[in-house]
Specification:
The structure holds two protein chains of two kinds. By secondary structure, chain A is α+β, with helices and mostly antiparallel strands. Chain A has two helices and four strands; from the N terminus they run βαββαβ. Chain A has one domain: 2-Layer Sandwich (Alpha-Beta Plaits), CATH 3.30.70.20. Chain A has a two-stranded antiparallel ribbon. In chain A, strands 2-3 form a two-stranded antiparallel sheet. Chain A is globular. Chain A starts with a strand and ends in a 7-residue tail after the last strand. Chain B has a domain of about 270 residues: Cytochrome P450 (Cytochrome p450, Orthogonal Bundle), CATH 1.10.630. The chains are: A alpha+beta, B alpha+beta. Chain A: Ferredoxins are iron-sulfur proteins that transfer electrons in a wide variety of metabolic reactions. Chain A: InterPro entries: 3Fe4S_ferredoxin, 4Fe4S_Fe-S-bd, Fe-S_cluster_ET.
């Protein structure tokens, strides 16, 4: 899985940091998204998917890997 | 005379809540959601626009920048609203702005309402909660939970965060209340706005003169906001913090008292609190309605919404959509309600939502812990409901408990 955040779209609502705290954080200064794990470990995938789908500003995109991750 | 089939004739917005169902949206909204989740609607001023009650329709429109939030473009959906065109948003009222104006304010503020920053306030919320549990207990059975508990906790928190002296609340609380009333007379609304602005202007002048390490103090010294903008955004944040979480605490308490099995589950499992708050947000949806206006022709779910047409978004109906939430009309704290629209969606999604979450996850369980025998002090049908307010809930909630 590969995650990408568009900080120009982000509004800093914090839904991703709330939903998948191992994967996303918010910048201390501007509150915008910080991707902690662009290639998140498998056990965080469900939370990461939920975070992407609930982002209010559609700032997150996700590409599922075509080959299995180690 | 020939009648149009009921499925295509424009409707008016259902506002009648069923007696004995204080937690349910007006019944007409559910019927409409089944029949026509994006329906034509006649507005009180004669405009024919739309009413969205389905989850997908509401969420889609909230996320689409081709729908504007500007007040002056909208038609007011409820009877008894302002006469004539709706005036533009006052300076600093972020809910009535589009990008890029909205982006400028949101960017200034988002960093101050992050998940982490709000969680750092948890100890203070706990302290304030304990103080007000003591006050409630001191008041004895029959005390109004709204006045003694639900209202002061978020009010104190937003005051401390902004740097507004809580002791001044006599100067802003009633104004904020008037601004939230759907049926306030225009002259009263105007007077409330002026009153709130006068108060904030004094405060902003003081913050400009002397630095303070609170939100308004910092904005007064580190931002490019003009005095007028600072007064406006300060009043907006204050009003937004006063009346929203307070209603979730009080109405959430009412809902838990009406669902004792759920209250028991919450009492027995502190881990359940976060999930419980999301479910209460979904189930109660106290911020029940929004309005957007199409800036250009937009197709949504196969319907063509024309430029200039207003769409009323029923968040409360969307959050009860069985296509999104199975058995939507039951309060089920075991449910994962993530994705609910209780804080809205899109670029205007609630700025203070992480503060609200911290307050609710602390205050509600603490209340049920402290008073294991908590109950209503009046029959449920005598609890006065906020049917005339932009934020739904209860006006008063007299509660009782067994005293040792």
């Amino acid at each position: 899985m590969e995650l990408h955040a568009d900080r120009t779209r982000c509004i800093g609502a914090g839904m991703c940091a709330l939903t998948a705290p191992e994967v996303f954080d918010q910048d201390e200064e501007d509150g915008l998204v910080v991707v902690l794990e662009p290639h998140p470990p498998e056990d965080t995938h469900p939370a990461a998917r939920l975070a992407v789908s609930t982002c209010p500003a559609a700032a997150l995109t996700l590409r599922e890997s075509t080959r299995p991750t180690a | 005379m020939q009648q149009e089939p009921s499925t295509t004739a424009p409707v008016t917005i259902p506002t009648q809540r069923t007696a004995g169902c204080p937690f349910d949206p007006p019944a007409g909204l559910a019927e409409l959601r089944e029949r026509d989740p994006l329906a034509r609607m006649t507005y009180p001023d004669g405009h024919v626009g739309w009413l969205a009650t389905g989850y997908t329709a509401v969420r889609t429109i909230l996320a689409d920048p081709r729908f504007s939030s500007r007040y002056e473009l909208m038609h007011y959906p409820f009877p008894g609203g302002p006469e004539g065109p709706v005036p533009p948003a006052p300076v600093g009222d972020m809910t009535g702005m589009d990008a890029p104006e909205h982006t400028r304010f949101r960017r200034l503020l988002a960093g101050r309402f992050t998940v982490r920053r709000m969680r750092q306030l948890a100890d203070r919320v706990q302290e304030i909660t304990t103080e007000h549990l003591d006050a409630l207990e001191g008041g004895g059975p029959g005390t109004d939970l709204v006045e003694a508990f639900a209202r002061p906790i978020p009010a104190l928190m937003i005051c401390e965060l902004l740097g507004v002296p809580y002791a001044d609340r006599g100067r802003f609380q009633s104004h904020a209340h008037t601004l939230m009333s759907m049926d306030a007379a225009p002259e009263d609304r105007y007077a409330a706005m002026v009153g709130l602005q006068e108060y904030m202007a004094e405060l902003v002048a003081a913050k400009r003169a002397e630095p303070s390490d609170d939100l308004l103090g910092e904005l007064a010294h580190d931002s490019d906001l003009t005095d007028e903008e600072l007064v406006g955004v300060g009043g907006f944040l204050l009003a937004a913090g006063l009346d929203t979480t307070a209603n979730m605490i009080a109405h959430g308490t009412f809902a838990l008292l009406a669902n004792p099995v759920q209250a028991e589950a919450l009492r027995g499992d502190p881990e359940l609190a976060s999930q419980a708050v999301e479910e209460l947000m979904r189930y109660l949806t106290v911020a029940h309605t929004g309005v957007k206006t199409a800036l250009e022709d937009v197709e949504v779910e196969g319907r063509l919404i024309r430029a200039g047409e207003s769409v009323t978004l029923s968040f409360e109906a969307a959050n009860r959509d069985p296509r999104r939430f199975p058995e939507p009309d039951s309060l089920d704290l075991g449910r994962r309600a993530t994705g609910h629209l209780g804080f809205g969606h899109g670029i205007h999604q609630c700025l203070g939502q992480q503060l609200a979450r911290v307050e609710l996850t602390i205050a509600l369980p603490a209340l049920f812990e402290r008073f294991p025998t908590l109950r209503l002090a009046v029959p449920a049908d005598e609890v006065p409901l906020r049917t005339n307010m932009n934020i739904y809930g209860v006006h008063r909630l007299p509660v009782a408990w067994d005293e040792d």
